[in-house]
Structure to design on (66 residues):
């Protein structure tokens, strides 16, 4: 008994509550365009200093014995 998956779903847009027909659940096309415009960002290179571990541990007396 295989169930066929419908190719299009009928639901309300979770953002504007307008009824839409789409393959996947999510915002409608105008809402997606508005979200892309609102949250658009440019990629940039971020330079980070090299990691240097802190030396807050005292050496073991046996390990430093000469």
């Amino acid at each position: 008994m295989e169930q066929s998956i419908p190719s299009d779903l009928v639901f309300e847009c979770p953002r504007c509550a307008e009824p839409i027909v789409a393959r996947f659940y999510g915002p409608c096309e105008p809402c997606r365009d508005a979200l892309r415009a609102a949250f658009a960002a440019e990629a940039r290179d971020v330079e980070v200093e090299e990691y240097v571990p802190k030396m807050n541990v005292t050496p073991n007396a046996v390990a430093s014995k000469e």
In short: The chain has one helix and two strands. The helical segments are 29-38.
